[in-house]
Design goal:
heterodimer, A: mainly beta, 1 helix, globular, B: 63 residues, mainly beta, 6 strands, 0% helix, rod-shaped
Chain lengths: 163, 63
Amino acid sequence: MANTQSMCTSFMSQLMLGEHQLGTATLVSRGSLTSPTTDTLKAALYLSSATMNASTTAYTAVNEVSGTGYTAGGVTVTNATAPTSTNASATAGVAFFTPSASIVYTTVTLATAFDAVLIYNSTQSDKAISVHTFGSQTITAGTFTLTMPANTTSAALIRLATT
Amino acid sequence: MALVTTTKGDMDESLLEKREGTVDNDNETTSWVEYWLDEELVHRSAHVRLKKTVTLTSSVASF
């Protein structure tokens, strides 16, 4: 078993179906959805023995970390900055999104090694968005912090690109 | 006097042995700090700075 960093395939199709709302938006009328609210995203940690990857469709408690100070489901992700996009040419562009603050698990003890975080949409039935991996960690009466990359076209945490 | 959260409650940092490390690769920059008391790990924190993006490359079909 191993975790693999990837965009979750189900998320791709859900984007096309409008099942995620990662930031506030003003829309031309979609019936009553003229001013939808921002969905709540969460981040859950997974053991190194888990199998979180592109085929993950939703948050699961199976192989999620557990320990003092950690609540199943993880912590809320701060997404104050809505997704944005930039065109590089007539045929190429990038849409990108990065949580607007670090993801922090404060004063936890996670004794079993973990190496992945699942970002998921807790408003929309816990649907999976992406899996990110890192070197295996344990935490003892301490804090685990995930700092986000710069929210740019080339470095943002999640990018949808045309080439 | 700096206090450190440990498995034995808050302790004065001067009473503990501090060990630190950093890992830097294409995927992440990770730093960690540990505090030991008489060869017992009583605190470990880690800070991971993610570097790698996940990207969906889109395409459209031609008629």
